[in-house]
Amino acid sequence: MSKGYTRTSKFLSLVLRHEPAKAGLTLDSSGWVGVDELLAGCAAAGVAITRAELAKIVAQNDKQRFAFSDNGQRIRANQGHSVEIDLKLAPAVPPEHLFHGTADRFLAQIRRHGLSKQQRHHVHLSATRETAIEVGKRHGRPVVLRVAAGEMARQGHPFYCSANGVWLTDSVPPQFLDEA
Ligand code: HQG
Questions:
Q1: 105 and 67: one domain?
Q2: What is the 124 CA–ligand 1 centroid distance (Å)?
Protein backbone atom coordinates (compact mmCIF):
# COMPACT_ATOMS: atom_id res chain seq x y z
CA MET A 1 0.00 0.00 0.00
CA SER A 2 1.36 3.44 -0.79
CA LYS A 3 2.76 5.32 2.15
CA GLY A 4 0.15 8.07 1.85
CA TYR A 5 -2.59 5.82 3.22
CA THR A 6 -0.80 4.48 6.27
CA ARG A 7 -2.18 7.09 8.66
CA THR A 8 -5.70 6.66 7.32
CA SER A 9 -5.45 2.89 7.46
CA LYS A 10 -4.23 3.03 11.06
CA PHE A 11 -7.13 5.27 11.97
CA LEU A 12 -9.54 2.82 10.33
CA SER A 13 -8.01 -0.05 12.34
CA LEU A 14 -8.44 1.96 15.51
CA VAL A 15 -12.07 2.81 14.77
CA LEU A 16 -13.16 -0.57 13.35
CA ARG A 17 -11.41 -2.70 15.96
CA HIS A 18 -10.87 -0.81 19.17
CA GLU A 19 -12.44 2.61 19.59
CA PRO A 20 -15.39 3.26 17.26
CA ALA A 21 -16.38 6.15 19.51
CA LYS A 22 -13.33 8.06 18.24
CA ALA A 23 -15.37 8.57 15.06
CA GLY A 24 -18.69 8.76 16.88
CA LEU A 25 -19.62 5.24 15.73
CA THR A 26 -21.06 2.06 17.19
CA LEU A 27 -20.35 -1.26 15.48
CA ASP A 28 -23.14 -3.82 15.13
CA SER A 29 -22.86 -7.18 16.88
CA SER A 30 -20.74 -8.62 14.05
CA GLY A 31 -18.46 -5.61 13.76
CA TRP A 32 -20.11 -3.95 10.75
CA VAL A 33 -20.75 -0.25 10.29
CA GLY A 34 -22.37 1.60 7.36
CA VAL A 35 -19.86 3.02 4.86
CA ASP A 36 -21.68 6.38 4.75
CA GLU A 37 -21.65 6.57 8.52
CA LEU A 38 -17.97 5.65 8.66
CA LEU A 39 -16.95 8.30 6.14
CA ALA A 40 -18.99 10.96 7.92
CA GLY A 41 -17.62 9.92 11.32
CA CYS A 42 -14.01 9.93 10.13
CA ALA A 43 -14.43 13.36 8.53
CA ALA A 44 -15.89 14.71 11.76
CA ALA A 45 -12.89 13.27 13.61
CA GLY A 46 -10.53 15.14 11.28
CA VAL A 47 -9.60 12.20 9.02
CA ALA A 48 -11.39 12.93 5.76
CA ILE A 49 -11.53 9.92 3.44
CA THR A 50 -13.25 9.76 0.06
CA ARG A 51 -15.22 6.70 -0.98
CA ALA A 52 -12.62 5.98 -3.67
CA GLU A 53 -9.78 6.15 -1.14
CA LEU A 54 -11.64 3.78 1.16
CA ALA A 55 -12.13 1.29 -1.67
CA LYS A 56 -8.42 1.50 -2.46
CA ILE A 57 -7.44 0.95 1.17
CA VAL A 58 -9.71 -2.09 1.47
CA ALA A 59 -8.34 -3.57 -1.76
CA GLN A 60 -4.67 -2.77 -1.24
CA ASN A 61 -4.18 -3.04 2.51
CA ASP A 62 -1.07 -5.16 3.08
CA LYS A 63 -2.86 -7.58 5.38
CA GLN A 64 -6.36 -7.27 3.93
CA ARG A 65 -7.48 -5.95 7.28
CA PHE A 66 -10.92 -4.73 6.11
CA ALA A 67 -13.82 -6.10 4.08
CA PHE A 68 -16.99 -4.65 2.57
CA SER A 69 -20.30 -6.49 2.95
CA ASP A 70 -21.61 -8.20 -0.20
CA ASN A 71 -23.73 -5.19 -1.15
CA GLY A 72 -20.83 -2.81 -0.47
CA GLN A 73 -22.83 -0.73 1.99
CA ARG A 74 -21.10 -1.86 5.17
CA ILE A 75 -17.51 -2.41 6.22
CA ARG A 76 -15.72 -4.21 9.05
CA ALA A 77 -12.27 -5.27 10.20
CA ASN A 78 -11.56 -8.92 9.38
CA GLN A 79 -9.98 -9.66 12.77
CA GLY A 80 -8.02 -8.14 15.62
CA HIS A 81 -10.85 -6.51 17.57
CA SER A 82 -10.79 -5.62 21.22
CA VAL A 83 -14.42 -4.34 21.28
CA GLU A 84 -17.07 -6.91 22.11
CA ILE A 85 -18.24 -8.24 18.75
CA ASP A 86 -18.78 -11.70 17.29
CA LEU A 87 -17.38 -12.16 13.78
CA LYS A 88 -19.57 -15.28 13.44
CA LEU A 89 -16.82 -17.21 11.70
CA ALA A 90 -17.52 -20.87 10.99
CA PRO A 91 -15.18 -23.34 12.70
CA ALA A 92 -12.56 -24.62 10.24
CA VAL A 93 -10.10 -27.51 10.19
CA PRO A 94 -6.60 -26.07 10.61
CA PRO A 95 -3.42 -27.37 8.97
CA GLU A 96 -1.38 -29.79 11.10
CA HIS A 97 0.98 -26.99 12.17
CA LEU A 98 0.50 -23.26 12.57
CA PHE A 99 2.95 -20.63 13.82
CA HIS A 100 2.88 -17.91 16.43
CA GLY A 101 5.36 -15.06 16.45
CA THR A 102 6.15 -13.42 19.75
CA ALA A 103 9.02 -11.64 21.50
CA ASP A 104 11.71 -13.52 23.39
CA ARG A 105 10.85 -11.77 26.65
CA PHE A 106 7.39 -13.43 26.69
CA LEU A 107 8.74 -16.95 26.21
CA ALA A 108 9.10 -18.03 29.83
CA GLN A 109 5.51 -17.01 30.59
CA ILE A 110 4.20 -18.66 27.44
CA ARG A 111 6.07 -21.91 28.13
CA ARG A 112 4.47 -22.00 31.56
CA HIS A 113 0.93 -20.88 30.78
CA GLY A 114 0.57 -21.35 27.03
CA LEU A 115 -0.77 -18.67 24.68
CA SER A 116 -3.72 -16.60 25.82
CA LYS A 117 -5.62 -13.95 23.93
CA GLN A 118 -4.53 -10.89 25.94
CA GLN A 119 -6.56 -7.82 24.80
CA ARG A 120 -7.95 -9.48 21.67
CA HIS A 121 -10.76 -12.00 21.18
CA HIS A 122 -8.54 -14.87 20.10
CA VAL A 123 -4.97 -16.04 19.97
CA HIS A 124 -3.75 -15.18 16.45
CA LEU A 125 -1.79 -17.82 14.53
CA SER A 126 -0.05 -17.63 11.16
CA ALA A 127 0.06 -20.18 8.37
CA THR A 128 3.75 -19.52 7.70
CA ARG A 129 6.89 -19.05 9.74
CA GLU A 130 7.72 -15.91 7.72
CA THR A 131 4.48 -14.18 8.69
CA ALA A 132 4.97 -15.21 12.32
CA ILE A 133 8.41 -13.58 12.37
CA GLU A 134 6.87 -10.31 11.14
CA VAL A 135 4.18 -10.52 13.84
CA GLY A 136 6.80 -11.22 16.52
CA LYS A 137 8.95 -8.26 15.44
CA ARG A 138 6.16 -5.90 16.48
CA HIS A 139 6.87 -6.82 20.10
CA GLY A 140 10.68 -7.07 20.22
CA ARG A 141 13.24 -9.71 19.32
CA PRO A 142 11.09 -12.24 17.43
CA VAL A 143 10.74 -15.91 18.33
CA VAL A 144 8.52 -18.34 16.45
CA LEU A 145 6.54 -21.06 18.16
CA ARG A 146 5.08 -24.01 16.29
CA VAL A 147 1.55 -24.95 17.30
CA ALA A 148 0.27 -28.52 16.97
CA ALA A 149 -3.00 -27.22 15.57
CA GLY A 150 -4.16 -30.50 14.03
CA GLU A 151 -3.76 -32.31 17.35
CA MET A 152 -5.52 -29.49 19.21
CA ALA A 153 -8.45 -29.65 16.78
CA ARG A 154 -8.71 -33.43 17.20
CA GLN A 155 -8.87 -32.88 20.94
CA GLY A 156 -11.80 -30.51 20.54
CA HIS A 157 -10.28 -27.01 20.40
CA PRO A 158 -12.20 -24.97 17.81
CA PHE A 159 -10.27 -23.04 15.15
CA TYR A 160 -11.48 -20.26 12.87
CA CYS A 161 -9.89 -18.68 9.81
CA SER A 162 -10.55 -14.97 9.25
CA ALA A 163 -11.32 -13.55 5.81
CA ASN A 164 -7.68 -12.47 5.57
CA GLY A 165 -6.20 -15.87 6.39
CA VAL A 166 -5.33 -15.38 10.07
CA TRP A 167 -6.03 -18.51 12.14
CA LEU A 168 -7.80 -17.90 15.43
CA THR A 169 -8.32 -20.03 18.51
CA ASP A 170 -9.23 -19.40 22.14
CA SER A 171 -5.98 -20.43 23.78
CA VAL A 172 -3.04 -22.76 23.21
CA PRO A 173 -2.02 -24.88 26.22
CA PRO A 174 1.76 -25.33 26.60
CA GLN A 175 1.79 -28.99 25.57
CA PHE A 176 0.86 -27.98 22.00
CA LEU A 177 3.76 -25.53 21.66
CA ASP A 178 7.26 -26.08 20.34
CA GLU A 179 10.00 -23.68 19.47
CA ALA A 180 10.04 -23.71 15.67
C1 HQG B 1 1.77 -12.60 23.88
C2 HQG B 1 -1.35 -8.06 13.97
C3 HQG B 1 2.87 -13.59 27.99
C4 HQG B 1 1.66 -12.96 22.42
C5 HQG B 1 -0.53 -9.29 13.74
C6 HQG B 1 1.81 -11.60 21.78
C7 HQG B 1 -1.44 -10.41 14.15
C8 HQG B 1 1.70 -13.81 26.04
C9 HQG B 1 1.15 -10.66 22.78
C10 HQG B 1 -2.38 -9.78 15.14
C11 HQG B 1 0.98 -14.91 26.56
C12 HQG B 1 -0.22 -10.19 22.37
C13 HQG B 1 -2.19 -10.33 16.51
C14 HQG B 1 1.28 -15.33 27.88
C15 HQG B 1 0.30 -14.57 24.56
N16 HQG B 1 2.22 -14.63 28.55
N17 HQG B 1 2.63 -13.16 26.74
N18 HQG B 1 0.64 -16.33 28.47
N19 HQG B 1 0.12 -15.34 25.62
N20 HQG B 1 1.25 -13.63 24.79
O21 HQG B 1 -0.77 -7.87 19.42
O22 HQG B 1 -0.48 -12.30 18.06
O23 HQG B 1 -1.41 -5.58 12.18
O24 HQG B 1 -2.53 -8.96 20.92
O25 HQG B 1 2.68 -13.86 22.03
O26 HQG B 1 -0.09 -9.38 12.43
O27 HQG B 1 1.11 -10.32 18.37
O28 HQG B 1 -3.19 -5.78 13.93
O29 HQG B 1 -1.23 -10.38 19.38
O30 HQG B 1 3.15 -11.27 21.62
O31 HQG B 1 -2.15 -10.99 13.12
O32 HQG B 1 -3.65 -6.50 11.57
O33 HQG B 1 1.02 -11.41 24.00
O34 HQG B 1 -2.10 -8.39 15.10
O35 HQG B 1 -2.18 -7.79 12.91
O36 HQG B 1 -0.08 -9.28 21.32
O37 HQG B 1 -0.86 -10.11 16.94
P38 HQG B 1 -1.20 -9.02 20.27
P39 HQG B 1 -0.26 -10.84 18.20
P40 HQG B 1 -2.63 -6.33 12.61
A1: no
A2: 7
